[in-house]
Amino acid sequence: MPTYDTEAVVLSRRNAREHDRFYSLYSKELGRIDVYGQGTRRLRSKLSPFLIPGNRIRLMGVRGKKVDRAAGCRLLDTIRDSDRLDQLLARQSVIRLVELSTRRDSSSNGLWEILVEVLNGIHESKTIDDCRALEVRFYLKILSASGYHFELKRCLHCDSEKITHFNPSGGVFCSEHSHSDFYRLSSQQLSDLWNLQENSVTSSLPENRYMKLKELLSPAFEYHFERSAAWADYRLAI
Fold first, then answer.
1. Residue 219 has pLDDT above 90, yes or no
2. pTM of the model as a whole
3. Other CB atoms within 10 A of residue 226 CB
4. Alpha helices in the chain (DSSP H)
5. Dihedrals phi, psi of 64, to nearest 5 degrees
6. Any residues with CB less than 8 A from the CB of 110 and at least 6 apart, and which?
7. Domain's final residue, options 44, 77, 110
8. Pick from 142, 185, 176: which is nearest to 32 by CA?
């Protein structure tokens, strides 16, 4: 049977039968893949300690008619004992976003590089505000990688630079061309969105600004990716 070897981040796992599990991963070469781990619920399983959500691994998979099978793996990066709670939560949020915004056997241009960059940034972050900024930056980068790059400089209708509102479906508008279902946008929020989307250097993000940006971007994800049931559960979690 054909096999493959790829670097991947474990997104989630779910139990199957008495001793097995299904795993969802996002890989460097293949994009989103699902694999079956036979016997990985057993205490003596050699694969189970590596196939933990959030871990970055080297996976050897075996192609199957309906689902691939995990045949072996090697740990490349994992959660550290020294990680803070905010780092653990941000890491969990990032991998959940990847699972919600991707489909099996599909890949988004540049998403792997963004995912690894942000996970490394979260681990190296010094403060909770740094961690928040990386999480929101990932919101914007994953949207851009999927083809939904926001126009944040000029009104989408008239090219005016006097921005007052945000539309989750695509970008910003001036007051003259805004609608009742658009979100009011402060100059601080516009500046934060621009810096996090366009700049390579991520600044800190205090809690009040972080929550405002999450309120703006959650509807954007819901609009573009249409994972109604799963996304509703995720929004309740945040």
1. no
2. 0.83
3. 8
4. 85-101, 111-124, 128-145, 187-198, 207-225, 228-237
5. -125, 170
6. 145
7. 77
8. 142
- Looking at the fold, whether 98 and 183 belong to one and the same domain comes out as yes
pLDDT in tens, 149-177: 888 999 999 999 999 999 988 889 999 99
Cα–Cα nearest to 217, from 198, 187, 199, 192:
192
Q: 162 with 233, same domain?
A: yes
Identify each DSSP E strand in 28-126 by its residue range.
Answer: 31-37, 56-62, 68-77
By the 8 A CB rule, do 143 and 67 touch?
no
Full residue range of the structural domain in which residue 165 is found: 85-237
Same domain, 158 and 105: yes
CA dist 182 and 184 (Å) reads 7
Number of domains in the chain: 2
Residue 207 CB-half CA count within 13 A: 2
**Does residue 92 sit in the same domain as residue 55?**
no
Among 38, 61, 77, give the residue marking a domain's end. Answer: 77
Residues 90 and 108 in one domain: yes
**Has residue 146 got a pLDDT over 90?**
no
Q: Are residues 206 and 230 in the same domain?
A: yes
* CA dihedral of 40, 4, 66, 44, whole degrees rounded to 10: -10
Which residue in the block uniquely carries the two structure tokens 């049977």? 1
99: left (phi over 0), alpha (psi -120 to 50) or beta: alpha
Give the model's pLDDT for residue 168.
84
